Amino acid sequence: MGLDDRKLEVLRAIVEDYVSTQEPVGSKALVERHALGVSSATVRNDMAVLEEEGYIRQPHTSAGRVPTDRGYRLFVDRLSRVKPLSPAERRAIERFLVGAVDLDDVVHRAVRLLAQLTRQVAVVQYPSLTRSSVRHLELVPVSTTRLLLVMITDTGRVEQRVVELPGPVEVEEITELRRTLNATLVGVKLVDTPPLVQGLVERAEPQAKATMSTLVSVLLETLVERHEERLALAGTSNLARMGPLDLTTGALRPILEALEEEVILLKLFDEVKSGAARVRIGDENEVVDLRATSVVSTGYGPGATVVGGMGIVGPTRMDYPGTIATVRAVARYVGEMLGH
Amino acid sequence: MGLDDRKLEVLRAIVEDYVSTQEPVGSKALVERHALGVSSATVRNDMAVLEEEGYIRQPHTSAGRVPTDRGYRLFVDRLSRVKPLSPAERRAIERFLVGAVDLDDVVHRAVRLLAQLTRQVAVVQYPSLTRSSVRHLELVPVSTTRLLLVMITDTGRVEQRVVELPGPVEVEEITELRRTLNATLVGVKLVDTPPLVQGLVERAEPQAKATMSTLVSVLLETLVERHEERLALAGTSNLARMGPLDLTTGALRPILEALEEEVILLKLFDEVKSGAARVRIGDENEVVDLRATSVVSTGYGPGATVVGGMGIVGPTRMDYPGTIATVRAVARYVGEMLGH
DNA sequence: ACTGGCACTCACTCACGACGAGTGCCAGCC
DNA sequence: GGCTGGCACTCGTCGTGAGTGAGTGCCAGT
Question: Of A109, A114, A225, B59, which is most buried, counting CB atoms within 10 Å of its CB?
């Protein structure tokens, strides 16, 4: 691996030029636009080495060079400095998020903001239920044999579910149930609830046992075990900007399809355990349909805890430093907002 | 307007062939595929008339004919018979919707189903708040000066909002407020609430006046006046199937953008007052960006009442009878489900 | 009123050649 | 040994031009 400093510099120049022009970049254009201090012939030699090592390739003989996924990876890891956001951008983020009235609104604003700033497709995961804790449980009688169970989490998320009761229940009983549930569960992390909830049935008054049992099973099935997580998506139209390049190949279709599959998108956030940004370039994606794209994702949440993920999906040919900075910044602001 | 029966038959044949082949249809192909009982020369004469009247046009001289927006309109109004759904389709709809656990789920399933069956982009509006009535109001203390206000409507929709109180409030007071609110508002249509709500402040106990006033303003501002309606969208990837035809022109972009603007989409349902399907073809659309598409929309709700709209957006070249039938069927099933 | 025939139009396809950006290699220079 | 200028070569792109065929419009005949 004889990649001396100049070769790395050449790679950096190729990536930057290609990202901005979207066209294969040749040796001559390169020396003109960057002060490399050497002639185009030398650059050509360097390019040959870079190509041999798999960092760049030629779309066809006698065309310019284009970075490979591996080239982008090297660029992201070692060649790009973090690009700090301009004060204007910071202000824009703050102003845009500050007016949010509730959790839904925060998520919606965040995802649109992200799409707008990065000009890519943005995805934001709602604060995950399993990672937050119970703030309050409410029981609302809908009819004599039906209850609405409402759960509020500390991240401001509200989940509700209609429960069919085994038999009619008095209002006083409901009040009592509500008291018991809250006394047991408020403040408990959702992941820790199952054992506690089981105990509730055993300790319940004989006549309330059936009702409590029904409630508990609903709680377990739908609120705790249920992995269904919600997502917000924005900026799909930015995909159309990926260039007629990719449009003609018809590669747009599978990407759009993947973006509609919540299950697939959720996978993107499986491993965001920290606030650090993660970049998956082209082939590095586990999701096959997204192999033509790059994904920049990060976790967010109040303080250092992570309650959800957010990120963007775009062409491998993207402005990585800028995008990473933006994703991180938005995640940080949203995290702060969740801490009230 | 000398449009005798045969000319109408020719128009119908052109529309049907064009929809299925996506290619301009010529006189010869027409007589081969349809038993018109006349020669191609005669058909040509008929075509000339149809073109003069503006129902069809030639993309270029010496190409086949293509229906115009006007032609589709005539086809929809007078030439197409309703295509009843196959039992298999009916079963699919029923099976798909039956497992829904709550309102969110119903809407989500409906929109995916619609997208899948029609192979177009589907849009479903959540049951509108303003057209439904209050089933229950719940107040949940979050801290001493903060309440969570939860409203449940008869369509199963739940809206919540955090309220900052002017000062600390006792639990008993909250219970009293809850009682009063529910006594006054349960069963009332949301549109009719404003006058009732105003009265609440005036009749409140002096010490509770400030609190009640805050609550009331939140109720009015965010729950009643607020026009924000939610939407579910699915099948965007079907747009890519509109054909490279439209892709090359880059006409996809504005359509995708329009589909991301909730405001625009909501306009589509402005006038769905009944369960009858409405078809807007090409130029008939008020939304400029959707002039290249056709929109099939209808209202839905329990019984004859309409609580929301749903529909699809697709190329003007679509299977109108089939699409209309599908949209109507899904709307009817969803309506039934809302009636529990 | 319909039909068969015929001349005409014009988008589409393909082959051909010119053009030029870009490369690889080599001999020479520092 | 590394860099440079020069040069032959490759190959995708663009423009031209002929050939093809689907489709039309019109007209004379039944």
Answer: A114
